[in-house]
Amino acid sequence: MINCFIINLDHSTERWEQFTRNWGTIPDISWIRVSAVDISREKDVSRWGRYCPWTFRLLNGRKATNGEIGCYLSHLKALKMFLETDDEFAIICEDDIRPEPYFAEILQEALSHARKWNILRLGQCREKDSAAIVQLSHGVCLKICVKGFAYSGACLFDRQAAEFLVRRLAQMKVPWDLAIHRGWSEIREASLLPGIYVLDEISEQSTLGNRCGKTTFLSPFWWSAQLYKIFSRRIRYAIQRRRIRELKRPENDSGK
Q1: Can you give the residue range of the structural domain that contains 166?
Q2: What is the pLDDT of residues 185-219, one digit of tens each?
Q3: CB within 8 A of 119, min separation 6: which ones?
Q4: Per the structure, how many domains does the chain have?
Q5: Alpha carbons 201 and 96: distance in angstroms, whole number
Q6: For the whole model, what pTM was predicted?
Q7: CATH number assigned to the domain comprising residue 203
């Protein structure tokens, strides 16, 4: 049995009902609802993390939207709830995703290769410049992706990754999707391709508000944001390519 922490706003009852309908038949998973952080309603959000407005502007060329802040703090909150358990693994997901029929089967197969990753993305990944590490059933492959942005709609974490991210990402400097996509030498990231979930139709109805802001060259921080983007991407590329080389060594072919 593995816990799945689902981020859901208190007033989004329709989305929660839709989620339970979509996932009600998936075996060996325990669903735990995480009350999403709504900064427009909750007065004290500092217990989950801290938003650094000037650093965010410097690295992104703009200020964060309420939706981005709420999303970031909600994911941190879910990771902290996971660490309060004794479990070794947990899924953190948002409430607008729908599983493929073979979700549970692929999940168990991926767990048998847990020594190859600390964060496993379960979907919404671009396959650009990726390398296959393990072939699973139903045509799904465990891969290391180098380039191409990936979203954090549903990810499987081990305790090492959760502890590291809670510590390193306590201050919000970039949106959550970018924060865990930047590449870390301390933790390993892999992806399932094709993914084992899809976005539900209800995902088009945003509940946290505008999740994505825009950066234009008119922003006084536009150039600093471009430099950070180039710098962070280069680091990610180097780390992920090193992971690929390590996992493709002959001594790793046994699946350990």
Answers
A1: 2-252
A2: 899 999 999 999 988 776 655 554 445 556 566 67
A3: 155, 156, 157, 158, 161, 180, 187, 188, 189, 190
A4: 1
A5: 8
A6: 0.89
A7: 3.90.550
